[in-house]
Here is the input.
Amino acid sequence: MTEAEARQRAATALAEAGIVLTPAEQDTIEVTDFGLGRLEEVGLQLLVYVNTERVCAKELVLFPGQTCPEHRHPPVGGGPGKEETFRCRRGEVQLHVAGRPEVVLGPGEQATIPDENDVFTDPRIVR
Here is the structure.
């Protein structure tokens, strides 16, 4: 799958979930394979609405069979940093957080986890 195909597929998935995007927003959907070259396996499509030091709002799209690489969120500068709230729009989301039971979200369900900075377990990850 090419980046353009993934971007279009993500826009379609968001539309099917009832999320209305402007044409400009559709064009800004980021597609990442995390530098591994295995987009269909390890990849993510995301639309960033806002991302400041204090607030972040994004739509993440993972296709069936795609995973986001394992990573952790260490404290930064002595502060707790941001939190991440994941809300499942369609399908099923499995969140794996170290030291906690796996969280499985269905449509309309959400979970919040601490988020300071992404530190990926796999050193080959580029993000």
